[in-house]
Structure formats: C-alpha cells, structure tokens
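FW: tagging you since you asked about this chain on Friday. Here's the raw sequence from the shared folder, copied in full. Didn't touch anything.
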Amino acid sequence: MRDVSLQQQVEALVFASEEAVTLQTIRLVTGRELDSRQLQGIVDALNAEYVATGRSFQIHRLAGGYRFLARAEFSDLLKKLLAPKVRKRLSPTLLEVLAVIAYQQPVTRGEIQQVRGVSPDYALDRLLLRGFIEVRGRRDSPGKPLQYGTTSEFLDLFHLSSLKELPKLREIKEILQEQEEQEYLARSEGSVAALSDNNQDETIETNETGQ
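HL: got it, structure written out here
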C-alpha cells in the first residue's frame, strides 16, 4: 500500500518551495529514510494522478531536485507571462554575460571581456551574488585567472534539468528574430491604429466645422 501521508508531504514540500527540492532536503524535513528510487516512485504516482485528473502541471526533476512545472503544451502561454519577470530579474548586461558563461564554461573574466568588448566585472559580481554562477578554480595559464561556470540556480531559473538542454545558438537566433518580427508587427499595428484614430478625429472635426 502507498504511504499516502508521505506522498502528501512530498507534494507539499515541492509545492511550497521556491526552488527545486532535493532528496536530501526531503529526508531532512520529513525524517524519512528515502532513497532516490522510492522518491521517484512517489513523484511518478503523483504525476499519474495529475494526468488522470487533467491538471495543467506535473512534478519535474531538474537542477538536482524536484519542482512543479506546467505541462509542455502550456509553454508558449507561460512564456508571455514569465518573460518580463526574467528580464526584470536580469538586465540585458547580466543576461549577456550569463549567456557567455553558460555556453563557454569554464570561462575566465578575460575571455568574457574578449567576447563582449567591455569589462564584465559588475555583471560577474551580481551573478555571483545571486548564485547563478560560481568560481570553478583557476586556469593553468599566466596569472592563474579564475574560471566561472553556472550553478543549479541557473538551471532552475530557466527550467533546465541539465546544460544539455540549452538551446542551440541557431535556435536562439531564430527566437530573437521571431521576437523582433513580433515587436515590429506590434509597433506597426499601433501606428496604424493611431493613424486611424487621427483620421477619425479629423473627420469629426471637419463634419462639425461644416455644420
């Protein structure tokens, strides 16, 4: 028989946590000697219930732990909601430096500056402070510069289970191009709407003058 109480506890912990909950955390909080296979069994049982009841979410394993995420078919919908939050949390400068680190790690400060053309010191300090990157030792080269890499918090931020899920550079270019096209169309529609409103106002003024 399933341990319903333990299943509910796991569900509550994953639901309430703002980051991926690890096996070690669940063991500590529940006081139960779970192994990874048992925990995965509990997660699978919960997910089966969510599917059976038509829920829009499931528990996913990512960043070394478990977290509630919406099902894949809702990804486009939620991107519209979450994109402004990510931009708010990370400025364009921080995102650029983080991207260089993610795709070229382990990478040194000098290598980041070579890619971007400007000093990354401020961005590195902020990313270290927020826990999205960490020091990965020193490069075996003159000066022994520090090397940087991403953390599990980085994976959690972008809902990745591993760095293998990072989009290819070609995919990023396509996404950016699509966003630019959508922004251009939105601006164009706004301009047309504004022009239409102006024309209507002029027509009204003309009619009133004629009367």
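FW: The CA atoms of residues 67 and 180 lie 32 Å apart.
HL: agreed, and The longest helix spans residues 169-210.
FW: great, closing this out.
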